[in-house]
């Protein structure tokens, strides 16, 4: 639009200049009436200069239009990325809420376990007392191993009756009776975590969680009462290609309690 206006404005200049250059000089009395009433607005050089400037303005407008298109594209790309990030943040918030609930449940169970242990410590000395409780205290991941492996809970909290051996991770039943066993675990989600309580090498109960890349970590727990004979061997076995985690917070524990003799 601006180009058309400038060209229209310059047209009289060009026509007048051409006419002036193509006609001989007249005296005032010989100049046609239509030319006597008009004056030259610009010279040829001025017209060329204005046309050059107009071309430059056109180039600048085209460059600005190109930059505007680039900015618009980048803005649309940023809006798309923002939408993706919002969805990821929403998913992470859900995962965090779920992990918080699981951790709270595990801590509650561990608190109940500790309360039971303290109560057993206060039982009359006239009866046989057997109780042990220990954590891995590994300060990191344990596993994965190529074969099923006995976990060695080396951080012993209680070992009344001396039935638990922290060097082997095995509890040897010191007296026949009914026992309660509990085990808890915490692990990162990148690999599966399956733990089994065994009696004399035979699987009894298992806690497990399959590999899940959408969860940063997971927890597991199980418990059972068993009638055992003196000399029975009890331990926790970590399945092949699985792992478990522990640190100074003692997430992963193994506990056994004699309820009564038989």
TrEMBL record:
Residues 75-123 form a coiled coil. Residues 125-262 form the C1q domain. GO terms for cellular component: extracellular region. Keywords: Coiled coil, Secreted, Signal. Pfam families: C1q. Residues 1-20 form the signal peptide. Gene3D superfamilies: 2.60.120.40. Its main location: secreted. It is found in: Secreted. This is Caprin family member 2. It comes from Astyanax mexicanus. The gene is CAPRIN2.
């Amino acid at each position: 639009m601006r180009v058309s206006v400038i060209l229209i404005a310059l047209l009289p200049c060009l026509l007048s200049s051409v006419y002036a250059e193509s006609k001989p000089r007249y005296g005032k009395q010989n100049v046609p009436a239509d030319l006597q009433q008009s004056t030259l607005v610009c010279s040829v050089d001025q017209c060329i200069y204005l046309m050059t400037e107009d071309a430059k303005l056109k180039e600048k407008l085209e460059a600005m239009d190109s930059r505007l298109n680039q900015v618009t594209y980048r803005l649309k790309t940023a809006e798309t990325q923002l939408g993706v990030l919002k969805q990821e943040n929403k998913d992470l918030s859900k995962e965090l809420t779920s992990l918080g609930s699981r951790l709270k449940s595990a801590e509650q169970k561990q608190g109940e376990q500790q309360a039971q242990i303290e109560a057993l410590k206060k039982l009359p000395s006239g009866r046989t007392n057997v109780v042990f409780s220990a954590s891995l205290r590994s300060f990191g991941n344990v596993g994965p191993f190529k074969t099923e492996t006995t976990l060695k809970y080396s951080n012993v909290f209680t070992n009344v009756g001396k039935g638990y051996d922290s060097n082997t991770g095995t509890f040897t039943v010191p007296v026949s009776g009914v026992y309660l066993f509990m085990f808890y675990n915490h692990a990162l989600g990148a690999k599966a975590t399956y733990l089994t309580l065994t009696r004399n090498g035979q699987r009894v109960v298992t806690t497990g969680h399959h590999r899940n890349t959408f969860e940063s970590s997971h927890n597991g727990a199980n418990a059972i009462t068993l009638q055992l004979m003196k000399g029975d061997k009890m331990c926790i076995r970590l399945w092949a290609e699985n792992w478990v985690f522990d640190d100074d917070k003692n997430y992963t524990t193994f506990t056994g309690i004699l309820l009564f003799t038989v």
